[in-house]
């Protein structure tokens, strides 16, 4: 069975981003079993303007290509003023009209237990874009006050256990979906 490839979007541009650290830790935790490709382009996207949707943009083209090639999408993003980060919403707006997002299995990682407004809003946006949120894969890990690096997170057993449980549920859901789709195609 080929290994899964997952694409990951981080909604923070901060150098010391906890959300980015969490994605990097997860990438290391599952290395050899699941490939997690972490996006590097989100900060390079221009502000969304529907007038420019047909214009060539390298960062957007790469993001779309990586999303299309992935079996699933992981999103880890902070809450700002009880909302989704502008950086993430901008990227999602660029992806709204393309086919890459439709029916893509989605895992949400919330690194702050109190950030429920943004998670609820993100669920609404992803669902509206026809992404398939896998509920049992969505996890919250309380990292906010700890300001950890990826290496710090790798030492936090309760956090790594939660992340891996979510990832296992995510990969099971993706595999099942792929098997059902393949069976219907035969
Ligand atoms: C401008 C601003 C607004 C914020 N608003 C909220 C908020 O409404 N709710 C919350 O839980 N955290 C809020 N935070 C805290 C961030 O979510 C937190 O610092 C988070 O770690 C940022 O993510 P990052 O570490 O990946 O950059 C806010 C932070 C900033 C800078």
TrEMBL record:
Record keywords, A-Z: Flavoprotein, FMN
NADPH-dependent FMN reductase-like domain residues: 6-139
Alphabetical list of InterPro entries matching this protein: Flavoprotein-like_sf (IPR029039), FMN_Rdtase-like_dom (IPR005025), NAD(P)H-dep_reductase (IPR050712)
Cofactors, names only: FMN
Designated name of the protein: NAD(P)H-dependent oxidoreductase
Organism: Thalassolituus marinus
């Amino acid at each position: 069975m080929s290994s899964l490839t997952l694409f990951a979007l981080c909604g923070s541009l901060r150098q010391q981003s906890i959300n980015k650290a969490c994605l990097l830790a997860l990438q290391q935790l599952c290395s050899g079993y699941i490939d997690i490709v972490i996006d590097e382009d989100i900060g390079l996207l221009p502000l969304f303007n529907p007038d420019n949707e047909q214009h060539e943009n390298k960062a957007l083209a790469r993001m779309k290509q990586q999303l299309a090639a992935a079996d699933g999408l992981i999103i880890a993003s902070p809450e700002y003023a009880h909302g989704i980060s502008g950086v993430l919403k901008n990227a999602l707006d660029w992806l709204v009209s393309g086919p890459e997002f439709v029916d893509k299995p989605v895992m949400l990682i919330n690194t702050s237990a109190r950030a429920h407004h943004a998670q609820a809003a993100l669920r609404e946006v992803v669902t509206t874009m026809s992404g398939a949120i896998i509920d049992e894969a969505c996890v919250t890990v309380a990292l906010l006050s700890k300001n950890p690096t990826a290496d710090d997170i790798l030492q936090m057993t309760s956090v790594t256990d939660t992340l891996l449980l979510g990832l296992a549920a995510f990969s099971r859901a993706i595999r099942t979906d792929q098997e059902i789709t393949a069976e219907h195609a035969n």
